[in-house]
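Quick review question:
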């Protein structure tokens, strides 16, 4: 196991009727900007719950954050924050809203030039950010308990990310009853997103880290068991709670300490979103099987372990067991009504050329060993045609 340091300061407030507790976490003298998405929080009643809880606090609003939050929209929020002298941000929504809120928090106090640099220049370090709180309405990204943010710049057709401890929420409220009103598509996307988050930290190479492996496997098994229950009965509180907590645990850093991480599936998936607006979770369902197939030699020990411990695959040679593990993964995604090939999303072969060219021009190599170049990315995507 590698050396590591781990610190997670996010306070989690979990359970039914927990949204009212937001008043105990937001400073009473703060000038708060509530940031949200397209208005679903108003239809579900979450908006009124937050407004009622914070009725004694100065509260402004900024809505319209996209499912893949746009840089352009975030910068409008930054302008409002500065104009109104906002000193606290409250994200009310899913992971995309929280990702946007994190970027707004960092961009508002960024003093070293264009805030786009936060997302595009690897050496850029966020030195400060406005404080953030979160009310989570959609389990998926794990953004409620980490410092990660992913932002799309629509005019450039680019999706970029950054990470900083300064944008970790001070608190996150997780009420599983928020799951009750989610459409099937969002539930399915969330299950896939959390599932692939785990695999990005697990399907690498052995490093004698059995505890991390077992924790990762427990999340995968729980998602396989509970995800379909949520889809079958949206009012199953226990299933919703288990799903919500699994999504948080998938990306709060606890299963990644001391072990290698991949994230190539995400980096390729981001390009599919940038070019075609495909839901993030669905891009992962497309790319992951191709990644497992292409990197079967590098990842064979962990794929075989995954196949055996998660899917009970024990018969056959190495390649046969890897093929079976990939097939089981695809079958699981498709059982959630999440398609796994490019033609099912009307993505033409020309998009593969565009994505490949970007990685070639940037001379970028990805994966846990940094050995996937533009040719490898092309092969992964062609596998999904």
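Suggested answer, residue by residue:
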């Amino acid at each position: 196991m590698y050396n590591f340091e781990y610190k997670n300061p996010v306070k989690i407030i979990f359970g039914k009727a927990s949204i009212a507790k937001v008043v105990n976490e937001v400073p009473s003298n703060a000038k708060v900007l509530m940031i949200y998405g397209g208005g679903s929080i108003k239809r579900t009643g979450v908006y009124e719950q937050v407004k009622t809880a914070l009725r004694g606090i100065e509260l402004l609003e900024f809505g319209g954050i996209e499912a893949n939050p746009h840089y352009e929209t975030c910068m409008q929020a930054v302008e409002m924050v500065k104009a109104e002298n906002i000193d606290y941000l409250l994200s009310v929504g899913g992971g995309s809203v929280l990702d946007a809120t994190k970027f707004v928090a960092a961009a508002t106090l960024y003093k070293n030039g264009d805030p786009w640099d936060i997302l595009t220049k690897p050496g850029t370090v966020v030195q400060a950010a406005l404080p953030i709180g979160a009310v989570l309405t959609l389990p998926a990204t794990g953004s409620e308990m980490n410092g990660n943010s992913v932002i799309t710049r629509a005019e450039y057709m680019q999706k970029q990310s950054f990470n900083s401890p300064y944008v970790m929420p001070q608190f996150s409220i997780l009420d599983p009853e928020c799951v009750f009103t989610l459409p099937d598509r969002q539930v399915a996307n969330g299950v896939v997103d959390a599932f692939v988050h785990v695999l990005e930290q697990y399907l690498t190479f052995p490093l004698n880290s059995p505890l991390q492996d077992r924790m990762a496997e427990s999340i995968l098994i729980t998602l396989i068991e509970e995800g379909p229950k949520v889809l079958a009965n949206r009012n199953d509180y226990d299933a919703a709670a288990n799903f919500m907590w699994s999504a948080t645990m998938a990306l709060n850093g606890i299963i990644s300490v001391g072990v290698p991480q991949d994230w190539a599936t995400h980096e390729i998936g981001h390009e599919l979103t940038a070019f075609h607006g495909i839901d993030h979770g669905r891009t992962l369902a497309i790319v992951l099987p191709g990644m497992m197939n292409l990197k079967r030699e590098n990842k064979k020990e962990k794929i075989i372990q995954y196949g055996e411990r998660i899917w009970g695959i024990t018969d056959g040679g190495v390649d046969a067991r890897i093929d079976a593990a990939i097939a089981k993964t695809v079958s699981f995604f498709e059982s959630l009504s999440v398609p796994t090939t490019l033609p099912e999303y009307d993505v033409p072969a020309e998009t593969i050329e565009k994505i490949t060219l970007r990685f070639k021009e940037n001379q970028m190599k990805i994966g846990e060993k940094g050995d996937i170049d533009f040719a490898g990315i092309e092969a992964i995507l062609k596998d999904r045609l």
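Why it works: The chain has a mean pLDDT of 97. The CA atoms of residues 38 and 64 lie 5 Å apart.
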